[in-house]
Design goal:
By secondary structure, this protein is mainly alpha-helical. It has seven helices and no strands. The termini are far apart.
Length: about 200
């Protein structure tokens, strides 16, 4: 507030000084208002725009910028909402597909279990030689699955008439072990001791 008064007083003094200079007459009696008039005329030639008009224009321009930014933001929000709804729909579709896949998988497992049970029952009713021939021709995973479901007595009868190498391979798979290294005659070779010098 002090500075405002100081500026006001300086401004008043400046006006008085300028007024007194304009009316000073030179020694020969001529009026020295010419330089002051040229300054005044220069100021008159510039368009007079009230200060409040400049502020109003600046505020209007700023308001337009803000409105434009808000419009762009609203458009972006609308696009995000639309994209979010599309993503939700896609997620719902995927969940539905996943549920269907799980149902189909459960049905397949059920049918496979039923099919395996029928196969096991058929193999158990066969003569051991015929059952051994059938199980020997099966893929390892299916043969093991069938043998695991069969009664032990029936499995023993099947292994008894089965080709020995196939019986060893399937019995190893049944026991969940890897087959041992075989010697030249197909017999399991004993582990070798390291040679000492």
């Amino acid at each position: 507030m002090k500075h405002g008064w100081v500026l006001f007083v300086c401004g008043v003094l400046g006006v008085f000084a300028a007024g007194s200079l304009l009316h000073v007459k030179s020694a020969n009696g001529s009026d020295e208002k010419a330089p002051a008039k040229s300054v005044a005329s220069e100021l008159d030639t510039k368009p007079k725009v009230p200060l409040s008009k400049q502020y109003d224009d600046a505020l209007a321009a700023q308001k337009k910028e803000i409105e434009e930014a808000q419009r762009r933001l609203r458009e972006r929000e609308e696009r995000l909402v639309a994209e979010e709804s599309r993503v939700k729909l896609r997620i719902e579709e995927l969940v539905s597909v996943q549920t269907q896949i799980e149902k189909l998988r459960a049905e397949m497992t059920k049918h496979e279990g039923e099919d395996l049970a029928r196969l096991v029952k058929s193999v158990e009713t066969m003569q051991p030689k015929k059952a051994a021939s059938l199980v020997s021709a099966m893929e390892d995973s299916l043969a093991v699955a069938v043998l695991r479901k069969m009664k032990e007595k029936k499995v023993a009868g099947v292994f008894d008439v089965m080709e020995p190498s196939r019986a060893v391979a399937l019995s190893t798979l049944l026991a969940d072990r890897k087959p041992a290294a075989t010697g030249s005659k197909g017999e399991a070779s004993a582990p070798r001791e390291p040679v000492r010098p």
